[in-house]
Write a structure and sequence with these properties.
alpha/beta; 220 residues; 8 helices
Length: 220
């Protein structure tokens, strides 16, 4: 057993020495091969990093969304969404509806004893009208994922007369598995303030929190 262990150790030492010799005497040749392979050029199929491999996830921790500005169809879609919604719906569609964001709180806010205070539950009222799918879902998920569960009584989505098909049965089916999410629909187009009043009359909590349909809640 001792002999076998020594033999394996000797083999490892020899391999390490041979590797060092190759790196010393064939360093220039190796660099030539790498330049031919073009492994580190932007746009190449594979990028090799000797220490770690990184992946670009659109929107993760606030990372920018990369898209081709030379594609006329994409540019037109982006511009139309900005004109209609005031933001880039194309970029939003490329991001996860449950993305992670950096914690921007001051350290004293993170360690503050206020987090141990006993607070009442709240109903979060969100009025939407023809909101893009990814934006509305990201808003709701950010509330559920980043809020203390015991403080959220419900998330009430108030449809203020949307006519886009995916905001009807598809939206209800998506949130069916979320017990704290409810959807109510105004009988007619009310406008933001009247729709919020309509929603407040259909809540289950005495404490109400009103949010826009295109926001993200972070920790804290």
């Amino acid at each position: 057993m001792i002999t076998t262990t020594r033999w394996r150790f000797t083999v490892v030492i020899v391999l390490v020495v041979l590797l060092g010799v190759n790196l010393i005497f064939y360093h220039d040749e190796l660099k030539q091969h790498i330049s031919v392979w073009k492994l580190n050029e932007p746009g190449s199929i594979t990028t090799i990093n000797p220490f770690w491999i990184t992946f670009h996830v659109p929107g993760h921790l606030g990372e920018p969304v990369q898209w081709d500005p030379s594609d006329k169809e994409i540019v037109a879609f982006v511009q139309n969404s900005i004109n209609q919604y005031g933001f880039n719906a194309y970029a939003s569609a490329l991001m996860s509806t449950r993305r992670s964001l950096p914690d921007l709180r001051h350290f004293e806010c993170v360690t503050s004893q206020r987090k141990n205070l006993k607070l009442p539950k709240t109903s979060v009222v969100i009025v939407f009208y023809n909101e893009p799918w990814s934006v509305l879902l990201r808003t709701v998920h950010s509330v559920l994922d980043n809020s203390p569960a015991h403080l959220i009584d419900e998330v009430l989505l108030v449809d203020d007369g949307s006519y886009l098909p995916f905001l009807k049965a598809q939206l209800e089916e998506y949130f069916r598995k979320y017990e704290k999410v409810r959807i109510v629909r105004a009988p007619e187009r009310l406008g933001l303030i009247r729709a919020r009043i309509f929603g407040s009359k259909n809540t289950t909590s005495t404490i109400l929190t009103f949010l826009d349909a295109h926001v993200e809640c972070t920790k804290g």
